[in-house]
Amino acid sequence: MPVITSSKTQPEYDVAIVGSGAGGGQMAYTLTLAGLKVVMLEAGRDYDPVMETAMFQRPEHSPLLGTGTPDKPGNFSDATIDGGWTVPGEPYTQASEKEAEQFWWWRPRMMGGRTNHWGRMSLRNGTHDFKPRSRDGLGFDWPIGYEDVEPYYTKVEMLIGVYGTNEGMENTPNSPPGVLLPAPKARAAELYMQKHAKTLGIPVIPIHRAVLTKPLDADTIPAKLHPGDARAQKIVADSMRARAACFWATDCHRGCNIKANYQSTTVHLPPAHATGNLDVVANAHAREIIIGANGKATGVLYIDKKTGREERVKAKAVVLAASSGETVRILLNSKSSAFPSGIANRSGLVGKYIMDTVGVSVSGQVPALENLPPHNEDGAGGPHSYIPWWLYQEQHAGKMNFARGYHVEFGGTRGMPGGRNPLPDDLGRGAYGTKFKEEARRYFGSMVGYTCRGEMVPNENCFAELDPQVKDKWGIPVLRWHWKWSDQELNMVAHAQKTFASIIEAMGGNVRSKPEAPIDAIDPGGKIIHEVGGALMGVDAEKSVCNGFNQTWDVKNLFLSDAAPFPSNADKNPTLTIMALAWRTGDYIIEQAKKGNL
Amino acid sequence: MNTDDTRLPRRTVLKWFAAAAAAMHLPDFRADAQAAPVKGYGTDPDIAKFYQPGAFWPLTFTPEQRKTATALADVILPKDDLGPAASEVRVQDYIDEWISAPYPVQQKDRDVIVPGLEWIEAESQKRFAKDFATLSGEQHRAICDDLCWAAEAKPEFKKGASFFAKFRTLAASAYYGTDAGWKALGYIGNVPLATFDGPPPEVLAKLGVEQTVK
Questions:
Q1: How close is the nearest chain B Cα to the Cα of A562, in Å?
Q2: What is the pLDDT of residues A64-91, one digit of tens each?
């Protein structure tokens, strides 16, 4: 059962999943291996990472030296198809003309969604992250705790392969022994920074990323993931053996044709297809959830983008894993007499409390890193080290003017040049000729950059609704975004700017970024592409959209398996938590289906 | 792992975004879609392919402009102990491709580069009554020394200097995106390795650090 066209779908499935990324991929994996018949709708085209990944292209091999354009906003080689900040024919609107009150919405249109290009940062939420309101009185607690999710974090890490170390730091959970793959060696600038950040009391530790630093143990892991299920074990073992370990070259944002990093298309979908229980319809733009007379979801109405026709798939349960924004759009567009303001929206909270990650960057130049002997620092195609949030106790003691934490990701490496001038004019001071080449070589590898990845506190001013006028090219109402940062985020940005400057100075370096007020320096909402929220989980049907199993209160066979149910957006990048919760929800669906409760 | 310097300028994205947002305020988006302003490589090009300059849109330089651009690129990035001259890795072709692209950033650069090449050619004729491409090294330096640092250029050379800075940026962006440019810079990655061993001992010693990941 492969990728099919609309006309080849079965009359009815056990479950219909909208979206093929981290949430949809994990859900399809979990359900199909358990024997459920599943149809998946993907709004973009099919995509084959083995054939379509730009692995070793130099900038000279790509148009415009690979630099971004409105057609390919990241980079020409970036694994994003038919999307980015805009998608042709599928607009979204802003309630405000002010730049600071607008939301950037990143949408690829391809099999696997954003998982093809993401940074592979795979950090677990900690105990504090599930109960933020209990800790600081702001935002919302999750109805579940770390202990509920921990077994699924472990299973996901074993399945996808995550490198890193256990450091035992506050709210920065360890994985069980033997679960993480070996952390790659730190790079020169990472070590130099680690040494100097220590003098400021700032820890630098190995980051966790979904990249195989050695092959997965296909002989033992499948039995741990699927005890007592020989068929599932074999399928998963075969899929694991098809993945090679990292060969320490090429940027993970390009995707990986040897399957060394996690993307849904190389890790989740192949074993799901191998079960024979999965049909995937590509170019299927979900319009609404169909509701039956009994008040349950009966399937999904979608546009076949190839024919422009409306099509339907029927299923006993529906899972939305379309990304927070798309899930909100589909819920709000699913209007019926039972749900005049959108399905599962009796609370009126669908679309509310959207969050992104707080981002701000500061760059510098470090003389000690000039003229280092050439050596290969490509490594695992992304960061090897990071700074976890380190001031939990100070915050808890009320000593700081913002409540939540940030972690720090940084560059400072002899990464692939080209497509940009390695010698900024102010450092070159007019150099040309051999002098220019000497100066470029001198400074190569001495530039450092720090980015804040911080937790935003949910607020009333950040939400999405249907635009009353604008429709997409299929006549479907589009989202209109509202956005406003609070002092929580701006105070965090000011702290990060100061901290990054102090680290650069501790290394004997010079800050190169111009000083900017936090409201100008903060990345726009959505820019970090960590949109979460919009259909929060909670303990009370009046005050939340779904329960702790991602099951909507109003429609018990409708589940949300992207980040839409997140009541908070910890500084930990959301993808690993999306997958852990999708697996957990999948298990719940299987159990409820067995009991006949759906 | 990009440093801040390598990020797509926020302003640039904001501009694209503003343009898209303006379009979105139209009641009927389809009217705008039909007006498709830019014909670039589209949103789904074959990214695994290896391309040559000119693969997606016609190039711009006249033979004379090409000659001037080639000579200027070689003055900025000459053949020396660090590597070949710019023209040997076709830097002029990449600059031509860049300024010929239908996207906003590149079109703005085109308005600097094409008149700039005309200007420097005229300057060469004025000073030495010779084509820029046929000037001696000393004559090249006489002109380029007046242009090479915009911050300190004399008022009459300000415009020429901002052209020179843009040209140098584009030339370096192209040169250092080639294998020869990588060698010149000391970049030795983009090759598969069996193991990643981290920085070698001499690098650790120079920085006074030890490998902390065992």
A1: 25
A2: 999 999 999 989 999 999 999 999 999 9
Closest CB from A187, A417, A425 relative to B182: A417
Interface with chain B: mutation pick from A45, A69, A187, highest number of B CBs within 10 Å: A69
Look at residue A308 and give its three-state secondary structure: coil
Task: Report how far Cα A393 is from the mean position of its chain's Cα atoms.
Answer: 28
Of B30, B169, B187, the CB nearest to A417: B187
Given the cut 0.90, state whether the ipTM is greater than it.
Answer: yes
Asked if pLDDT for residue B2 goes beyond 50, the answer is: no
Average pLDDT over residues A310-331: 98
Calculate how close chain B gets to A225, using CA atoms only, in Å.
28
Least CB-CB distance to B189: which of A59, A89, A249?
A249
List Cα–Cα distances, A250 to A98, A209, A210, A256, B65, in angstroms: 38, 15, 15, 8, 36
Q: Residue B205: name the closest of A547, A282, A375 by CA.
A: A375
Contact A431 B148 (CB under 8 A): yes
d(CA A536, CA A129): 15
Q: Where along chain B do its domains lie?
A: 39-184
The predicted-structure confidence for A529-560, as pLDDT tens digits, reads as follows 999 999 999 999 999 999 999 999 999 999 99
Rounded Cα–Cα distance for residues A411 and A250 (Å): 15
The answer to whether the CB of B4 falls within 8 A of the CB of A361 is yes
Query: Are the beta carbons of A24 and A18 closer than 8 angstroms?
Result: yes
3 state DSSP class of A316: strand
